[in-house]
Description:
alpha/beta; Arc Repressor Mutant, subunit A; D-Maltodextrin-Binding Protein, domain 2; 10 helices; 22% strand
Amino acid sequence: MTLQYLKYLITVAEKGSITEAAKELFISQPSLSGAIKEVEKEAKITIFNRCRAGVALTKEGMEFLGYARQVVQQMDLLEAKYINNQAAKQRFCVSTQHYTFAANAFVELVQRFGQERFEFILNETQTHQIIEDVRNRFSDLGILYLSDSNENVLKKLFEQYNLNFIELFSAAPHIFIRKEHPLAEKKSVSLEDLKPYPRLSFVQGSYESSNFAEELFSNEYAEKSIKVSDRAAIVNFMIGLDGYTISSGIFPNYLHGSSIISIPLDENETMHIGYIINKDKELSELGQIYIDALKKFK
């Protein structure tokens, strides 16, 4: 098992196809297939399942690739510093639910880091994918929340995947609406008040349930429901359709002036917002900078 073979495997996983990966790597498809078989034989696991659409990682393959990425990243750092005499190119990746404050903290991380060579990734994605990204060591950290409605399922998943959840702060539920919304003058609203308006939420794909939802009370029936995949769309629907979404209430005004406001939701629930990390991994210097920036939003 060589470092080059590990790089081959990572490329195949990213492309989802041996044919496409071979083109990317400028090697023949038989040579790449042979390298995969050799690593699978040595590791005594099946890393990829073959199918008509290409290849997909097995559960064992996901774990293997997580460690392979770490090895390749560390070797890149060694080569840059001791062979090429360059400043080490730092990599840091965060997978997160769709929180504006998570993006703001990421901006502060980049500003404070200040070096010329780095690869930073902020991946706003679905809840289950966040957990998978951290489990497979693609992401250093994952940002999400726990509540009474989801903590039993998610904590079992964290334990199964050998992950720790560290709470950063708690928040009472709020709704986000446009400033001119019919409910905008109320000091607080109830779920009953919200029934006439479209409920906006983030799509969770095949994990569409209250356990993986980014919004509290997602199991409550709504006559009008719109699911989207990005924050910009939700803001547009708030402004254009009098829609609402339920979240933490943390939303910096400078992003959209005063066009979006938050109002407390008069319901008994709490969001415990925090991060997940592998149990055998310590918080890096970059991770600590990012977490410190997040804590400012308490």
